[in-house]
């Protein structure tokens, strides 16, 4: 499989984007761009947790519904959610209906309240690795790194859930801690 794919608009992109308009928009506008805002990082932590075991495009397509269901990922509003909210969300077919993931998002919000959104941002970014060589193939993009393992351990030690090393590496890619746009992609720096 080629590392890049040239779309109908003539732009070469990382081949994982395929021919999906939402993936193209996400790739071009979000993926790999440094994200420092703590509220937005909290949202990414939650969404990456919901993604575990599923495809990211599923989460992207459901993101508007997630934002509505989780009060725009306002940390205080999510932290205030309780058992009745969990039951209500389990009936919401527009999101991923997984009791553990829903409960984890609420628990993660409560932990983030204590840490503060700025604190969450500082914690996550403290694990940003030094820039390495740009991958030339999709096979050179790792699933985990020592930094994602360490970030996972740091978050788990504080009580966060659904923050495994693979999930945290996906967060690092999405939030721009690493830039895995492959050689030849128009977004490669």
Question: Overview of this structure, please?
Answer:
The chain has 189 residues and is mainly alpha-helical. The chain is 52% helix and 3% strand. It is built from 9 helices and 2 strands. The protein has helices at 21-29, 38-51, 56-69, 75-79, 83-90, 99-115, 117-125, 146-157, 165-174, and strands at residues 4-6, 12-14. It has a two-stranded antiparallel sheet with strand order 1-2. Strand 1 (4-6) and strand 2 form a beta hairpin. Helix 2 crosses helix 3 (56-69), helix 2 (38-51) packs antiparallel against helix 6 and helix 8 packs across helix 9 (165-174). The longest helix is centred in the middle third of the chain and has 17 residues, at 99-115. The protein is globular and about 50 Å long. The mean pLDDT is 97.
Q: What topology does this entry show?
A:
Elements (H helix, E strand, L loop, with lengths): L3 E3 L5 E3 L6 H9 L8 H14 L4 H14 L5 H5 L3 H8 L8 H17 L1 H9 L20 H12 L7 H10 L15
Antiparallel strand pairs: 1-2
Helix pairs in contact: 2-3, 2-6, 2-7, 2-9, 8-9
Q: What would the keywords be for this entry?
A:
3-methyladenine DNA glycosylase, DNA-3mA_glycosylase, Tag, DNA_glycosylase, mainly alpha, 189 residues, single chain
What's this entry about, in short?
The chain has nine helices and two strands. It has helices at 21-29, 38-51, 56-69, 75-79, 83-90, 99-115, 117-125, 146-157, 165-174; strands spanning 4-6, 12-14.
The average pLDDT value, as a whole number, equals: 97
Query: Termini, distance in Å?
Result: 22 Å
As residue ranges, the low-confidence spans are none
- Specify the structural class: mainly alpha
The coarse silhouette is: globular
Report the helical percentage. 40-55%
Rg, Cα atoms, Å:
17 Å
Largest sheet: 2 strands, antiparallel
């Amino acid at each position: 499989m080629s590392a890049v794919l040239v779309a109908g608009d003539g732009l070469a992109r990382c081949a994982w984007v395929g021919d999906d308009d939402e993936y193209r928009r996400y790739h071009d506008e979000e993926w790999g761009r440094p994200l420092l805002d703590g509220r937005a990082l909290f949202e990414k932590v939650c969404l990456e947790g919901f993604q575990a075991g599923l495809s990211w495009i599923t989460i992207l397509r459901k993101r508007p519904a997630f934002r509505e269901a989780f009060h725009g990922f306002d940390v205080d509003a999510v932290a205030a959610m309780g058992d009745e909210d969990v039951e209500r969300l389990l009936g919401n077919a527009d999101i991923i209906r997984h009791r553990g993931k829903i409960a984890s998002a609420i628990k993660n919000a409560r932990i983030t309240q204590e840490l503060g959104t700025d604190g969450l941002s500082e914690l996550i970014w403290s694990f940003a690795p030094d820039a390495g060589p740009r991958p030339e193939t999709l096979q050179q993009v790792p699933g985990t790194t020592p930094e994602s393992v360490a970030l996972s351990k740091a978050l788990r030690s504080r009580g966060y859930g659904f923050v495994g090393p693979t999930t945290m590496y996906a967060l690092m890619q999405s939030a721009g801690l690493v830039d895995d746009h492959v050689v030849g992609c128009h977004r490669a720096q």
